[in-house]
C-alpha cells in the first residue's frame, strides 16, 4: 500500500516519558487483544474511525502465499475474497492498513460483512459477539511507508466462526498514531 500517514492535529513534539510508556502499553495491548481492533483503536485514540476500502475482489487461492492457503485449509483451485482497507480518523489520517482473506464459499451473512464498503469489520456484531474465536497467527514490524523509512507494528490472526470458513486478518498500524516504542 502506498501513501504517507499524517500526524493528528496540533504541532509536532516529542512524546513525554508518560506518553511513551502509554504507547508501549497500547502497542502490547493491540498485539495481544482478543477482540475488535476497531473498537480498541477508537478507545485508545478517543476518536471514531471510518473504513476506506482500497480494493476488494474474488480471486483464485493459487494467488495467495502457500502458507496462507494452508492456514485457511484451501486448495489452489479454491476462490477467495480478498479485501484491502484502511481505518481513518475523522481528519483522514490512516490508523491501520488491513488485509482480510476468506474462502469465497463463506455463507451469505458473513460474506456481506466482509464485503461491506461502509462499515469496519470490527463493528460487526457477527465478528465480535457469540460464537467466534480469534487465534493469533503472527506479529512483527515492517515498513509503513513506500520508502521503508518508518517501521510499523503489525499482527495477523484467524477469526473462526461456528458455521463459516476461517477468516484471515492482517493489520498494520500507523507508527505516528500507534507507536511501538
Could you please say which CATH topology applies here? Chorismate lyase
Biggest sheet descriptor: 6 strands, antiparallel
Helix/strand structural class: alpha+beta
The fraction of residues in strands falls at 25-35%
User: Which CATH architecture is right?
Assistant: 3-Layer(aba) Sandwich
Q: What is the helix fraction of residues, given as a range?
A: 10-25%
What's the mean pLDDT score?
Answer: 83
Head-to-tail CA distance between termini: 23 Å
CATH class: Alpha Beta
Q: Please state how the strands of the largest beta sheet are arranged side by side.
A: 1-2-3-6-5-4
- Principal-axis shape equals globular
Question: What is the total number of structural domains?
Answer: 1
Number of beta strands: 6
**Poorly predicted ranges (pLDDT <50, ≥5 residues)?**
1-23
Based on CA atoms alone, the radius of gyration comes out at 16 Å
* Topology as a string of helices (H) and strands (E): HHEHEEHHEEE
List the helices and strands and how they pair.
Layout: H1 17-32, H2 37-45, E1 50-60, H3 66-72, E2 79-88, E3 94-103, H4 108-115, H5 125-128, E4 132-143, E5 151-161, E6 167-173
Antiparallel strand pairs: 1-2, 2-3, 3-6, 4-5, 5-6
Could you give a quick summary of the protein structure above?
With 181 residues, this protein is of the alpha+beta class.
Describe the protein's architecture and organization.
24% of the residues lie in helices and 34% in strands. The protein is globular. It has a six-stranded antiparallel beta sheet with strand order 1-2-3-6-5-4. The chain has five helices and six strands. The protein has helices spanning 17-32, 37-45, 66-72, 108-115, 125-128, and strands at 50-60, 79-88, 94-103, 132-143, 151-161, 167-173. 29% of the residues are buried. With 181 residues, it is of the alpha+beta class. It has a single domain (17-173), classed as Chorismate lyase (3-Layer(aba) Sandwich).
